[in-house]
Amino acid sequence: MKVRPLLDRIVVKRTEEEQKTKGGIIIPDTAKEKPLEGLVVAVGSGKILSNGKLAALDVKAGDRILFGKYSGTEVKLDGEDHVVLREDDILAVFDK
Known about the structure:
Elements: E1 9-14, E2 37-43, E3 47-48, E4 54-55, E5 64-67, E6 73-77, E7 80-86, E8 90-93
């Protein structure tokens, strides 16, 4: 399913968390926290400024980002969990 977020919203797919610690201990599903890192799937057209002009977003599809723990809204697209958030909720973009 193709999705196109509106304005300054971004659709992100969370990355998978590690199944083991560095010491080799397997982490059960109940003890895992949701990852704060994800891959940008789709971006909106941009943010409307106070003067009415449209400012392009700094992220693009394919970027790996870091976002806040309680940011965005969780949605299910094609049976997979995604997060829809605003550009302001992004904390950092990982360099490639």
